[in-house]
Amino acid sequence: MKHFLFLTFSFCLFLSSCSDNIEADLGNLQLGSVAITLTDLDDSQREGLDVQLRNTVTNTLTTVQTDAEGVASFSVTPGIYEALVSVKRSDNGKLYSFNGTSGQIVVRLNEEAATEIEMKKAMINQVVIKELYCGGCMRNNGVETFHFDKSFILYNNSSEPATLSNLCVGAAAPSNAHARNDNYTGGGKLNYDGKGFIPVWNGIWYFTDDLTIQPYSQVVVNVHGAIDNTLTVSQSVNYANPDYYCMYDPESGYTHSSYYPAPSELIPTSHYLKAIRVAQGNGWPLSVTSPALVVFQTHDVSPASYAQDNANWWYDGGGTNIIDRCVKVPNEWIVDAVEVFSTNYPTSNMKRLTADVDAGYVWLTRYQGHSLYRNVDKEATEALPENEGKLVYSYSLRADGTVNADEIDAEASIRQGAHIIYANTANSTNDFHERQQCSLKD
To answer: Which residue of 25, 83, 190, 375 has the fewest C-beta atoms within 10 A of its own C-beta?
Structure first.
């Protein structure tokens, strides 16, 4: 009996010792460290900024605030990370966002990595991309997919009319965020970052006349299938509307019959956008999984003249093949842009837009009828006196099923006559969410 008690006591001591050792090991878990320094900010702007570090494999996000020197220090498990930071600042009565990103940060066990993020200044524009619908939906048989029904919505996010001349649309290269991207340097930086342009691939589309958008109003632009698609695919979208615009220009070489059926007779021909094709293919390739949509204006030159000038061409991946040809869009010409990552390829997405254009990204799940919808600036919208009694709350159409009881339902509020002000930080991570269905179906 004494012998048994002695063994039991000894075993308990052993377990206690093991437990202490395990706790000590956990407490002293060897991680890697990262010091991220923000540059190109005034001394008064450096402290207290949220820097996000994302593990590119697990998608785990860690947020740390900068110190007085503009440094954010992380202790994280080894892996490959990307960092992003975004903040708003006013300057001489205009609102700007300061954004920065850094990709391919390698964290190793028991080693310290140091990197700098150059903060880029971007003016917050009057007109924004309110919504992008490009992921397609399921056909009526529930088996086949359909994606010839893409569109986006431009919105005047202010109380003054907005008139845009030489307005164009493009999509950054490569077409898919998860595709091989040879435009990165060994340091994890896009080789055109800091050179003042974004390469848009294959061709551009442009409005033939000045576009005027009234305050707190929108313009719908169909990309593919400017017809009532619901007649054959019930989950799709009806674009047979005289107020809508559409991309339709067979003379450009974009003649793919599935992409470009003859538009609905309800859409006036004056609402047809024209195109300049600089690469190959008979359909403008806006990705169904993960486009980087860019809306811009050409300054002091027509869209056609600019796109056809080979001095403004650039080649995706550094080659010379016509199939990789892009048009260089100066950053100061960009009205708005949105970077999309694909949930179907969660570990292989890479950014194509630089931080002064869009510092973040928004996730999209294809073939579910989902859209990417801009978040409401709740404080600014509630502050508009004309919105009293018109705002509708309990928005519940996020794709992930989450509901915020005090969130503004933008579309329902608009139907009540409210004016909506949308978030605009030049960072798609902050500005957009994945919506259960395109608002044009509400």
So the answer is: 25
